[in-house]
């Protein structure tokens, strides 16, 4: 079994357990509410889930890998590479998920 610090390190970026109640908690809450209320009834839910999953995930991966030399002037914690990956991942994820759900008949076009 892992310790509380191991769990905090896996969930938060800094490893601080207090950070978990900030961004990660809000992320899970919004994801849960969007799934519960909008999953296949509305494109809004599908787009919001795909944006959070694909866009945010790719922004973190690409930003950490390729973003050290292209930070934004207004926020040195964010990179242009991560932002571009967010937009591309959100678009591809949303489009792909909408296409898949409409082709299966789970959602009307």
Description:
The protein is mostly helical and 109 residues long. The chain has four helices and no strands. It has helices spanning 4-11, 23-38, 43-66, 80-104. The radius of gyration is 16 Å and the shape is flat. The model has no long low-confidence stretch (mean pLDDT 81).
What is the topology?
Blueprint: H1 4-11, H2 23-38, H3 43-66, H4 80-104
Radius of gyration, CA atoms, in whole angstroms:
16 Å
User: Would you tell me the overall average pLDDT?
Assistant: 81
The parts where pLDDT drops under 50 for at least 5 residues are none
Number of strands: 0
- Percent helix range: 55-70%
**Shape, please?**
flat
Figure out the total of helices: 4
Q: Structural class, judged by helices and strands?
A: mainly alpha
Main β sheet profile: none
Strand content: under 5%
Element-level helix/strand string? HHHH
Q: Give the terminus-to-terminus CA distance.
A: 47 Å
């Amino acid at each position: 079994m892992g310790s509380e610090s191991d769990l905090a390190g896996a969930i938060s970026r800094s490893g601080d357990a207090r950070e978990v109640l900030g961004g990660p908690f809000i992320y899970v809450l919004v994801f849960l509410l969007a799934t519960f209320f909008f999953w296949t009834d509305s494109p809004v839910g599908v787009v919001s889930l795909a944006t959070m999953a694909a866009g945010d995930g790719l922004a973190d991966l690409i930003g950490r890998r390729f973003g050290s030399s292209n930070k934004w002037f207004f926020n040195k914690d964010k990179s242009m590479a991560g932002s571009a990956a967010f937009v591309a991942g959100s678009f591809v994820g949303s489009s792909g998920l909408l296409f898949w759900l409409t082709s299966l008949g789970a959602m009307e076009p």
